[in-house]
Amino acid sequence: MIRPELMQSIRRCREALIGALIAGLGIFWAVASYGILQIVGMSLTIVGALVVFAGIQRMRFRTGGDGPGIVQVVEGQITYFGPLDGGSVSVDAIERIELEPKSVPSPEWILIEANTPPLHIPINASGSEVLFDVFARLEGLDTQRMLNDLHSGHGERILIWTSEKKRVH
Questions:
Q1: Are residues 46 and 111 in the same domain?
Q2: pTM listed for this prediction
Q3: What is the rounded distance in angstroms from the CA atom of residue 5 to the CA atom of residue 65?
Q4: DSSP characters for 44-92?
């Protein structure tokens, strides 16, 4: 019943839409009621606004899941199953994350771990949206800068994050 393009857009921004619904309900309760329900409404409005903000960041990170390969994150291990290559890295052992915008057929994340070959993951691989949560947990990673770099159209390889251990030495 719903056109596939519209359904894909809804899926892409689902968290932001849910946040807007929560904030809308909160505003309604804050304005249309009094007492404890009014306080709950104000709280819901704040929570909804935070969910909208997080949803917009996730929406900017998603580039579609129609690229080559599948990404999985299980118990601190990022695994990429590609049509020609693949591999895995431990989240705790990642030393650098780079973005290669000129890679063909699509730009790719490059995850570098000591003593192993770099893991190249297309930004539009199926399941790659789970990398947002992994990257966001890394200490010192500037999420906003990463999202700007992802959409900058910059032609050169971009250093997204370096481990604190490597910065000290």
A1: no
A2: 0.73
A3: 14
A4: HHHHHHHHHHHHHHHHHH---S-EEEEEEEETTEEEEE-SS-EEEEEGG
